[in-house]
Amino acid sequence: MNTVLKTDAAAPSTVVVRRKIPASAAELFDAWLDPQALAIWMRPTGIRRTTATTDARVGGRYEILMEGDQTTHPHHGVYRLIDRPRRLVFTWISKATEGRETLVTVDFQPHGDLTEVVITHERLPDGASASHTEGWTSALARLADRGASANPA
After folding, report:
1. Quick check: helix, strand or coil at residue 44?
2. pTM above 0.85, yes or no
3. Distance of CA 111 to CAs 22, 51, 82, 122, 149, Å?
4. What is the pLDDT of residues 25-40, one digit of tens each?
């Protein structure tokens, strides 16, 4: 279930994307901080190669480079909260956010043998909701395909 929330015309948009994945919260959480794992699954539709660097600590920076056929899409930000295996919060800056700092919260909610991963992406500029909904949905599908093997360590 994906949701785009907007309170008024002047307010930035919020996108919520969720998916239940057959893996533990800890395994999925770790896949968000491990650069090798990110390079495997953080590859939305149309991206042929991803590279990532992470400094997985509060205040640490990350960079994700998504390479398409014609261009490279750099994304970067800072980790604001790392609460393993429950919640990860980080800023997200890219060309698609018009260079503005946006905020991503990822919640990991256990449901028996499944974990629901809920991505809430806030402060998106007008016109950026659809592409981010598609990107996060596609990335979660790849993470689900990898499941517990998303973390190569």
Report:
1. coil
2. yes
3. 9, 31, 21, 25, 19
4. 999 999 999 999 999 9
